[in-house]
């Protein structure tokens, strides 16, 4: 799969660092580089890349605002945010960024990002809606409505703000490999929508951790998942 990319960062050293990582992949072509949002938009309109590697803090422009401009374009452009700070990670998930990379970016971490880009572009196994059974009927639930998935009594249920619905034909492992990157396995029995996460906490007097979602639900974090979740949330 051929991928066309541009790199946007106001620091030339940072741009070159990402370009050097990209050069290890024969299927990724750098169509241009930009130091500002305005310059990037001009390149995007003329070169039509698949993906933008974007510093989330550009002079006079927030990366999230830039994505809102991209969403007005006719052709969809994937965004990978890059930052020296972790405070914008949840904002990145809110605007459906493919990934959020912390500077300096290691080759190993960059490889994970490339795999995610390829998966989204190929749309191989990436769910856009989840089938559920309700009153002997099949319905489809939008991902944005889902707070978390729970495995219980050999069945999987998804939870929205108001409903608990039985998932049709998918077990938790199959969902884990088929959902976009803003969903993450946090426990052997739970997958969480990272866009809905509001707090990462520990139980009083315990070394066990949990996530608090925007609906107030507390989801336990398995000890084997704690490090991964902290990295995803840049904690």
UniProtKB/TrEMBL annotation:
Keywords: Phosphoprotein
Residues bearing the modification 4-aspartylphosphate: 55
All copies of domain HTH LytTR-type, residue ranges: 130-235
Phosphoprotein in keyword set: yes
Matches recorded under InterPro entries: CheY-like_superfamily (IPR011006), LytR-like (IPR046947), LytTR_DNA-bd_dom (IPR007492), Sig_transdc_resp-reg_receiver (IPR001789)
Residues annotated as domain Response regulatory: 4-118
Name of one Pfam family that matches: Response_reg
Family annotation (PROSITE patterns): HTH_LYTTR (PS50930), RESPONSE_REGULATORY (PS50110)
Gene Ontology molecular function: DNA binding; phosphorelay response regulator activity
UniProt cross-references to SUPFAM superfamilies, sorted A to Z: CheY-like
Keyword 4Fe-4S: no
PANTHER family: STAGE 0 SPORULATION PROTEIN A HOMOLOG (PTHR37299:SF1), TRANSCRIPTIONAL REGULATOR-RELATED (PTHR37299)
UniProt-recorded name of the protein: Two component transcriptional regulator, LytTR family
Organism: Kosmotoga olearia (strain ATCC BAA-1733 / DSM 21960 / TBF 19.5.1)
Lineage: Bacteria, Thermotogati, Thermotogota, Thermotogae, Kosmotogales
